[in-house]
């Protein structure tokens, strides 16, 4: 019993499609490898400069230690136990203003967004009163140190200069903080009378990578930031009340009340100061309350057209491209009687697959749109002249090449319209299916199979 040639060819084309899927998988693996190298380049810059920054303070803090005696496990020997805790007085009002100057660093082919910022911070206490220490044990004895001004930073290596003033008088800033959970800077405070107003100003010159966050550790926190970076991503637990984003940069304003944030209590409890999201996705769950850290208002300097992200998204449509191309060639066979060898299908599929490799390599050196245009024109040109010989005429070749060009145009629309990519792709596939059904609605598939069997004999 002889096999139907049509079904035999379909089986061969299925094997060809599987081979092309393996080619696309290899190209996708190369994209992921380049993404990993980009992350390594970012870590390299962070290690040499400074990482993403998050800032909390200034606050007035005092360390206390409680001692008490308790029985050892043998219930005979008395031992001395202790605990260390902190008392924190947050300002009634905190005003922060500053500019964020982007600086793009290069590690080989890979770019890393860093910044330098000048922050002007004004903190006011209407009447400074530190919480009274309370012993947790009945026989506990308390010993508290002197009050100190504390500013916590996620990466203090980024500090370039700090001008600290107390009620208009210069105050010497010292590295580190006495708090075991935080790093940054601190300054011992002179003798202060309880209930007196206090005003602290800090002009901080700071550098960091990609992200800047501020903790609303005050009764009322007002933040104003400006930058020349045109692609900000606002995150954290509080989005800005107002923002303007344009080609010349962005300006944003935040306002957070202590009624909306537990930052002061969390700061006293020693919760971590997170500078970057804990989620693996750049648009995933942010840090802060959801991950056990301090609340933060944050802005990130992102690249909206990351060549590796765009290439990875493009490859996901590669199999659809190959399937649509094979359907087009198959329809041409059916409607014109022109036979196309499986090897020709394989070469056409390889040309489409290598478009994605060409796109990846060019986008590392050129703007993504320019790289996409060059790769698309090259692939469409090669396929047009090959289709002219494969399908028996330049008119058919030009029509085939025009269809490929339309596919590449549709793909770019899908890549650039992230929010509507699904609906555009669904409409495109439905339209293609409708065209195929319309062109083949009068074909007698049983007669076609019988003719293929007679030709095989």
From TrEMBL:
<feature type="transmembrane region" description="Helical">
    <location>
        <begin position="421"/>
        <end position="439"/>
    </location>
</feature>
<feature type="transmembrane region" description="Helical">
    <location>
        <begin position="317"/>
        <end position="336"/>
    </location>
</feature>
<dbReference type="Pfam" id="PF06123">
    <property type="entry name" value="CreD"/>
</dbReference>
<feature type="transmembrane region" description="Helical">
    <location>
        <begin position="369"/>
        <end position="391"/>
    </location>
</feature>
<feature type="transmembrane region" description="Helical">
    <location>
        <begin position="343"/>
        <end position="363"/>
    </location>
</feature>
<dbReference type="InterPro" id="IPR010364">
    <property type="entry name" value="Uncharacterised_IM_CreD"/>
</dbReference>
<keyword id="KW-0812">Transmembrane</keyword>
<feature type="transmembrane region" description="Helical">
    <location>
        <begin position="398"/>
        <end position="415"/>
    </location>
</feature>
<keyword id="KW-0472">Membrane</keyword>
<keyword id="KW-1133">Transmembrane helix</keyword>
<protein>
    <submittedName>
        <fullName>Cell envelope integrity protein CreD</fullName>
    </submittedName>
</protein>
